[in-house]
Specification:
Strand order of the largest sheet of chain A: 4-3-5-7-6
Number of strands of chain A: 7
Number of helices of chain B: 21
Strand content of chain A: 5-15%
Number of domains of chain B: 2
Distance between the termini of chain A: 79 Å
Number of domains of chain A: 2
Largest sheet of chain B: 4 strands, mixed
Strand content of chain B: 5-15%
Low-confidence stretches of chain A: none
Order of helices and strands of chain A: HHEEHHHHHHHHHHHHHHHEHEHHEEE
Oligomer: heterodimer
Largest interface: A-B, 18 and 17 residues
Mean pLDDT of chain A: 90
Helix content of chain A: 55-70%
Low-confidence stretches of chain B: none
Radius of gyration of chain A: 24 Å
Order of helices and strands of chain B: HHEEHHHHHHHHHHHHHHEHHHEHHEE
Chain lengths: 490, 465
């Protein structure tokens, strides 16, 4: 296949991915629940040129710790409108992944058609495709990590050095998951040593420099968190119940559904082939990334969804290698004419097992955004309550309370630098499940709660059992219930 | 000739840079119209030395013996000094210490570059900045120890008086010096020289501690290890920069490959490292080693043949930025330290009030005693006395109770007349939430009267019937 034709087809794949994501995303004007944190940061950058590190609303007032590059990047395009930029830019970044996947796959397989196929796979990984409304920072992080991996594969060519360093620095300044890359790279060096493969001096220097940079930068950013939480900072101070539930909520069949059967089967075969049959350096890098993410997932050092996204990308890249193996094998046989039919067959299976589920999941994610009635309730809170009011809601709704209602929340999904995260989570959960009024009031008093927000959308409860008229005035009741808390316990 | 000129330029640059670096915190505080010296310890030492100059060994404010050491006697000759003269003394200590460190490294390493780079790293280390911008017992003890080490390794009997002086300045420094010379004795086997130093110093230590019951021997000898007191990045006053430890560890493992040649050096590092986990003097000595090891590794990286020159430049840039960053953060910490003008203003106001005990967070204790001339309920020295825990328990009850009767009776029992509340106390060092404990009572009870308030600092008087 000619280079120009491959480039054209790659562009088509990119556009299909981008437009699919964006068009589905624009079926709703809203974002997912967790995206409203990002939206607040982007709006604050627009207004004050700085992110909201000191947040007066989250947890009633707290400090956030994060590198802000991604939010600055999105806010750069806010002349389109913040909501539009927040829809387009993350989806654009996620779509650009297909280009980098093509480049990596071509470096490994030297076959344009297979590389295009792999690129197409990466555009429609269900668990990645479903992030269309998340304003996910991983859209940038994944792109950067894959780019750095590609440049490391090309380390023999000195012209790639400056882009490598540039992307590495941007990655380090974007998110702490740059650690994932470093762990993978260090494991890569270890695997090379174990397999007695030659280690390029340039690789050692670059990987050690990258490790040094990541360690130093993350130490500076997160030292306060390390001081407060100690080793638990690695788990981001997430309450234990949430950490353990990551793995109870999903099973292996569901995980394969989210990744796609084709990348799973072909990717695992590639790992087996590289580890036990033919040792190829460039594929070793992908295998070490895969293994390192698997270990981090097993130790629960990264969130399950995040880990699965990274794993799926590595499996897609590795599946390109497997496809090349089978294709090359078929080309050597008498039925070499069936090699292209093999590729077509893989494409069809992938289409049925990944593309269609991707669209299914993406469309069903449109129902996982705040409903009109929830936003209406939030707006009511903003207009009818004091500015200093504290509103208790479910964990998942915390960002909404801050964004739409502009009121203090008791809990949300960012637990870093929160001293009593575990206790707070248990208290908030129990407020919605308790039957005894005094216990509920005691917990509400502990956090100076003025209003109790109950949507019934999260958790198993369909109503609150203790809300009598003496202590709880039902001030809003339109599918969402808002109670004003009157009582205190001395 | 050119080489000699180059060496001179390097040495002059080193000392000039050291002086400029030490002057930076003073200049900035001067331009902010703040007092130049920070840290409570300095003001406690000033108060002690003033009493010592009048042959007073009893601290009438706190009803206990003054802490006395050679440093307080040294300071007692300077009670008429202005802040500027104290700065000159501090700078002189710093320059002399740097010179002795330079000479010690030069004794062990013929390579001039190692000496220069290690010395620059020493100047940039937070320990150097702390010691010679604050003027305290450690400043003098460090200088004397460096003199002692220099003369000892050169087998010069001038080491004897210096070790004797160290023994009556700070016990921790004396202990570390003794441990180091014991290791050195096993290495050199020069018994007479070793015993001459050791016995003289032990005699001077025993005599001084016999006649000065206030000489603190076990003060802060072993404290609980934690990141907060070990690393300056976490707020430690006398601590190690994380970057220095990182470079030092790399240097250590580099030397470990040739451990037979450097056995004394490596064993002494390990001993000092262990000591530094529990002791501030240990951290100061560890810093000397880390500066040397970091210097060695930096030179190694500069001279190494790199496959990618860009990576070399970026790595050295990263190291440079890491070191500068550590130093600037620490200098910033010093500049923002107490006492600030608001605190001095409030305490000066309190000085004109009737006598009485002042309750506040213990970190303000020394400032309360010096600027308001009143007894502080607790200060940083209280931890060394046997009644500390009962007093601390009472303090906690007063701070966190919302029961007016309980609080009132505790205040009366302990003769507390005034309460000093700062914004830092409200932001986490005592209270974490508004209207917590005593804050609620102060705002809502007629038992307390706010007699002074300025920029977040409040002075409350307790009204007894």
């Amino acid at each position: 296949m000619k280079k120009s034709i491959a480039a054209f087809l790659l562009l088509i794949i990119f556009l299909i991915t981008f437009f699919s994501r964006t068009l589905i995303s624009f079926q709703t004007e809203k974002f997912s629940y967790e995206a409203y944190f990002a939206l607040r940061q982007i709006e604050n950058i627009n207004e004050r040129a700085l992110p909201l590190f000191e947040d007066p609303l989250s947890y009633g007032g707290r400090t956030h710790l994060f590198p802000p590059v991604f939010y600055y990047l999105v806010s750069l395009f806010s002349f389109f409108g913040i909501d539009i930029a927040a829809k387009i830019i993350p989806n654009l970044l996620s779509s650009l992944i297909v280009i980098v996947v093509y480049l990596i796959s071509f470096h490994i397989t030297k076959h344009r058609l297979i590389s295009l196929l792999t690129a197409f796979f990466s555009g429609f990984i269900p668990i990645l495709f479903v992030t269309i409304n998340d304003i996910s920072i991983y859209s940038l992080v994944l792109l950067l990590i894959l780019s750095v991996i590609y440049f490391i594969m090309k380390i023999g060519d000195s012209s790639y050095m400056k882009p490598t360093l540039f992307f590495l620095v941007i990655l380090v300044f974007s998110h702490s998951s740059s650690f994932l890359l470093i762990v993978g790279l260090l494991l890569f060096l270890l695997l090379l040593k174990i397999e007695s493969l030659e280690i390029d001096k340039k690789e050692i220097e670059l990987i050690l420099f990258a490790s040094f940079l990541v360690l130093w930068f993350n130490f500076i950013v997160y030292k306060k968190a390390f001081l407060i939480h100690g080793p638990f900072v690695i788990w981001q101070n997430i309450p234990l119940q949430i950490l353990t539930n990551y793995f109870f909520d999903l099973n292996i069949i569901q995980s394969i559904y989210y990744v796609g059967i084709v990348p799973v089967v072909l990717g695992i075969y590639a790992i087996y082939h590289v580890l036990f049959k033919v040792k190829r350096r460039s594929v070793f890098l992908l295998v070490s990334m895969f293994l390192s993410i698997l270990v981090l997932l097993w130790l629960k050092l990264i969130r399950f969804k995040t880990g699965l996204i990274f794993l799926s990308l590595m499996l897609v890249l590795l599946s390109g290698y497997s496809i090349k193996l089978f294709y090359s094998y078929l080309m050597k046989t008498k039925i070499h004419n069936s090699a292209n039919w093999f590729l077509f067959g893989v494409f069809v299976v992938f289409f049925l097992t990944a593309v269609i589920p991707s669209f299914n999941l993406a469309f069903s994610s449109l129902n996982k955004v705040p409903s009109h009635s929830e936003i209406k309730a939030m707006n009511w809170l903003e207009q009818n309550t004091d500015k200093d009011s504290v509103v208790l809601s479910r964990l998942e709704e915390g960002y909404l309370i801050n964004y739409f209602a502009n009121r203090k929340s008791v809990i949300d999904q960012d637990f870093l630098l929160v001293n009593d995260a575990q206790q707070r989570y248990e208290d908030v959960q129990s407020v919605f499940s308790l039957r005894l009024k005094t216990e509920a009031v005691r917990r509400l008093n502990k956090y100076d709660v003025d209003y109790l927000y109950f949507s019934g959308k999260f958790g198993d409860e369909t109503k609150l059992y203790y809300t009598d008229k003496d202590c709880f005035e039902l001030v809003y009741n339109e599918s969402v219930e808002i109670y004003r808390v009157h009582c205190t316990i001395e | 000739m050119k080489k000699k000129l180059k060496i001179r330029i390097e040495i002059i640059s080193l000392f000039t840079f050291a002086i400029i670096l030490l002057l930076i915190p003073f200049f900035i505080r001067f331009f902010n119209n703040e007092v130049l010296f920070t840290g409570g310890e300095f003001y406690y030492d000033l108060r002690t030395s003033r009493d010592l100059s009048n042959d007073i060994y009893w601290d009438s404010l706190e009803n206990r013996l003054h802490k006395t050491s050679l440093f307080h006697y040294f300071l007692s000759f300077s009670t008429s000094f202005t802040e500027t003269k104290y700065i000159i003394v501090s700078l002189a200590f710093g320059v002399l210490s740097l010179f002795m460190f330079f000479m010690i490294i030069k004794h062990f390493f013929e390579n001039r570059d190692v000496v220069i780079v290690s010395s620059f790293l020493f100047v940039l280390s937070p320990v150097f900045v702390y010691l010679f911008t604050s003027l305290n017992t450690y400043s003098l003890a460090t200088l004397l120890s460096l003199f002692f080490i220099y003369f000892f390794i050169n087998k010069n009997y001038w080491s004897v008086p210096f070790l004797m002086l160290v023994s009556i300045t700070d016990f921790s420094f004396f202990l570390i010096d003794v441990i180091l010379i014991i290791f050195y004795y096993f290495y050199t086997r020069e018994r007479m020289f070793f015993l001459g130093n050791l016995i003289s110093a032990i005699i001077s230590f025993l005599l001084f501690s016999y006649y000065h019951k206030g000489f603190r021997i076990f003060e802060n000898l072993f404290s609980s290890p934690s990141f907060i007191v070990f690393f300056t990045s976490f707020g430690a006053e006398v601590g190690i920069a994380f970057f220095y430890l990182f470079l030092g560890l790399i240097g250590f493992f580099t030397i470990w490959k040739r451990r037979r040649e450097y056995i004394y050096f490596l064993v002494s590092i390990i001993a000092v490292l262990l000591f530094s986990l529990f002791n501030e003097a240990g951290r100061i000595f560890l810093n000397f080693y880390l500066c040397l090891l970091a210097g060695i590794i930096v030179l190694f990286l500069i001279r190494r043949k790199w496959a990618i020159i860009t990576i070399k430049k970026f790595t050295l840039l990263l190291i440079f930025c890491g070191i500068i960053f550590s130093t600037s953060l620490y200098i910033d910490q010093i500049i923002k330290s107490e006492p600030k003008n608001e605190l001095i203003e409030s305490l000066s106001y309190l000085k004109n009030q009737e006598s009485g005990v002042v309750l506040s967070h213990q970190s303000y204790g020394y400032f309360i005693e010096y600027f308001s001339d009143k007894q502080s309920y607790l200060d940083d020295s209280s931890v060394d006395y046997s009644n500390y825990f009962p007093l601390k328990d009472v303090e906690q009850k007063i701070f966190y109770s919302r029961n007016l009767e309980t609080t009132q009776s505790l205040l009366e029992e302990n003769g507390i007349e005034y309460i000093l509340v700062t914004s830092e106390m409200k932001k986490g060092i005592v209270w974490k939430r508004e209207s917590e404990g005593l804050l609620f009572l102060l705002e809502n009870s007629l038992v307390f009267e706010k007699i002074h308030s300025t920029k977040g600092i409040e002075v409350w008087k307790v009204l007894y019937e």
